Amino acid sequence: MKGKLYLLPCPLGDDALQTIPPYVVEIIHRLDYFICEKAKTARHFIKATGLPRPLQELTYYELNKRTEQSEWRTFLDAAEKGHDIGLLSEAGCPGVADPGAVIVAAAHERDIEVVPLVGPSSILLAVMASGMSGQNFAFVGYLGAKKPDLAKDLKRLEQNARKMQQTQLFIETPYRNTALIETALQTLSPNTKFGIAADLTLPTEWVKVKRVGDWKKTKMPDLHKRPAIFLIG
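Predicted structure:
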């Protein structure tokens, strides 16, 4: 009998372990195999849940941009032998803006049961808190890193939001937050709604939605290196 692949949510940052439901922690404590982006981060999270046995007893497989396909395709072999496996994201939900999607797809190909578990999703939390359309929205990941490409992408998302009445969500590497915000306020139309959801579920959580023209009159907090999701509506 094959094992299962459990999709294990993680907190969106430190001091947010309470966002992980108790039943998820119970499942984590009975697993021996974990697929994660970084073993160090995974061990830190698992230890924080109060694992009742030594961390050294667990097996970790790292899945990141350096992992070859020939390697990650073996990560589910333990499930073929009857062992349950946990898939962990660096933060939030596995498979969403996360390399774990390839493991989930491979599990379906191998007829291994996939079990998604409840936990914090920064994408859904941002939509919920924005007041923008939750009936029709799109998460587009990262935009262009260089200013001309970023401005072009922002205008495209603005047009999509208007034409389809669709909320557009995207992210940025936290150390580039300030540059992104500055470009957005220079590029987007004054009446376009622009939202920022930073440090979601953390004690420093900050969520604001304003029209671009109003943002230009607002004193912005320091969002440098703070995880954030941005929205256009």
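Summary: Strands lie at 5-8, 33-36, 59-62, 85-88, 114-116, 137-142, 167-171, 193-198, 206-211, 228-232.
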